[in-house]
Amino acid sequence: MGRPSRLPAAWLLVLVIAVLSPPAPWRADSFSTGAPDSACTSMKPSHGSNAPQSSNPPFQITPGDVSVDGGKKVTVTLATATPTGSFKGFFLQARDSNTSQPIGTFVTDQYKYLTCLPGFNNVVTHPNPVLKVSVVLEWAAPANYDGEVAFRATVVQDYDNFWIGITSEKVTVKRAAPAEVPTTTTTTNAPVTSVPSGGGLSGALDSIYLGCSVNKGCFGLP
């Protein structure tokens, strides 16, 4: 009976690495269904040890207006800045220019919402890694907010290349004026009492006292 064959040392090393290494599918779909809620603050995707690009981003954010009334909507476009550019993933929100607090609500039926407290549906991200050249969204300003916001985004070109902190020009939000309450005026007319002609009661009393102290005596006189 022959001795069992030994695995070469190189193959043994490969086997050990394969057993100890974590599965790799996360690399392919780490950004396939959008950013997680944990990205609210850092806006950084979980792409292993990869750092964001420091070069000028080949993407831009363009608001449809530079001012909007509270309670109204404004269009926001995230797009490539080059004719041949594209991207797979994004994370977009509006932030107060002074406090960096998320502001407002997005309106979309094509992309995926995230909620970064405080607020609701105040972030939009991609639902799949399909290549995109632009994303057009609607953003609703809060009715009771008065100040400036800027739209900020993280854009993922591929697993190894992504940019964070892409910022739009500022948009001024004017607080909505309070609704006017209609006033109702009620006029009450005092009842009118008719006085009989001919002197009325006073005239009747005067006739009773005619002749008093002349040819008859009357009670009630001084």
From TrEMBL:
Provide the primary localization.
Answer: secreted
* Chain intervals with Polar residues compositional bias: 32-59
Annotated compartments = Secreted
Task: Return the annotated region ranges for Disordered.
Answer: 32-66
Question: Iron-sulfur as a keyword?
Answer: no
Q: What is this protein called?
A: Ferric-chelate reductase 1 homolog isoform X2
Question: Which Pfam families does the UniProt record give?
Answer: Reeler
Task: List the keywords (alphabetical).
Answer: Antibiotic, Antimicrobial, Immunity, Innate immunity, Secreted, Signal
Tell me the organism.
Hirondellea gigas
